[in-house]
Amino acid sequence: MRRKRICVMALALLVCLTLSLAGCSGGNDSDAQTDGVSIIAANDYDITSFDPHKSNDIASSTALRAVYDTLIYANEQLQFEPGLAESWEYTDDNTLRIKIAEGVKFHNGTPLTTEDVKFSIERQQKSGFVGDIVSSIESIEIVDDLTLDLKVTDASAGVIAGLAHAGAAILSKEHVEGLEAEGKSIDDDPVGTGPFIYESWTVGTEYTVKKNPDYFDENRAAKADRVTVRAMPEYNSQVVALQNGEIDISIFMSANNLTEIEADPSLTVVRYETTEETFAAFNCSKAPFDNVKLRQALNYTINRDNIIQVYMAGTGMPNYGVIGPSAVGYTGDVTKYEYDLDKAKALLAEAGYPDGLSFNLAVCTDYYAPAATVWQADLKKIGVDMTIEVMEVGAYYDMTGSAEHEVALSGWYGEPDPSTTFNPCFNSELIGKGGNNFACFKSDEIDSLLEQALIEKDMAKRLEFYYEISRIATENAVYAPMTSAEGFIILRDNISGVTPDLQGIIRLNGWTKS
Length: 514
Prior knowledge:
By secondary structure, the protein is α+β, with helices and mostly antiparallel strands. It is built from 15 helices and 21 strands. Helix 9 runs antiparallel to helix 11, helix 13 packs antiparallel against helix 14 and helix 14 packs antiparallel against helix 15. The radius of gyration is 22 Å and the shape is globular.
């Protein structure tokens, strides 16, 4: 999942206005809660949806994990723990038995049952964003109210990780069907079992959640009474808001602002390792980027050292692969396109473009713009004119999900299991279906390797399949890899309990304020 985020589909302005004016206040409890600890955070872009089946980006995952639970919980180190499932075991090679916790209630007071779990997984399987991560589940058999059997295919090695993904959040069947019968969506009234209860969402501006006093797991219960997360795309504005006490936390900060922040004794910088990679993805499904020599030529124009200085203020590291070095499944044994404009120009001529060409680069939010401008300057040196279009998250993913882009600049975070890292990006069945296959590269060999990796149960052997996918993808230059980042969270000095995971997803439940 992922992007310095992975961005996703958004709503048009009319829909945004409609939701913010009419449908985005929580239907669970509209009374304002003014007592207790209230924390205000900022992110660089808004969430896409409170529907777990309509997004696959970091900001939305942060919100989803506050309001909903998954059967299996992936902790900050991406290790699996019981979530709504108190236990799971294989009763045979193709049957995964799930026992859900007793006494769990949705925010509207209805009890969690296996009917809700079955409904949620089957609904998820229809999603272009997150359906692929549970595609190995062939059928679901309910044993009783607390037990169910997932009948899985032989290609199910990644199913546990899939059930821990934010897109596998468990919904109330009764509530969702009731909303849909009224012509409404989950975004009109999100109801989960999570540590926080949805309170409001003004699309493009902010969302607020409040503590669930009846949360079933005291170890992961919310500590703050209310959390508001604002969308603030300007990092300088976030810094000013932190210094003025208007916000308590910056969930995601540009490295270019660190010098000013570190000079302020009232602010603390939390640095953390991530599984992220920033890259440009060529749309290999249509001309001119169906030409491998052209893609290879443009790969030789990536000046990673300059990009790190301008885009990342000297932090992070160069990357040549298709996933971040900290991600499970990464290999450095791939084709490396070092910065070489002479090679780029020669390959450009071989590709049929001796005089250069023009193309558009879709950029996911202002965060990536500095990397784009560095690349643009180097492309000009070999006669290539690249137009940069910085886009809001929703518009960006609407375009890339429909495979309408030429080249797209964004990022991707590695997941706990390599299947959920690689499959969304390289499964050819997902091209143009609203998901994250930005490169739109159709390869029967990669599709076969993805399938074999899910059949193989030995992780060491599985990894070899993913290494081979990386080698094929880089040899064919489907991406122009750039960098891998360090993560930064900024806190005012009275805030604690903010712990990111390797994917950059922030868990709101541990936040406290003194």
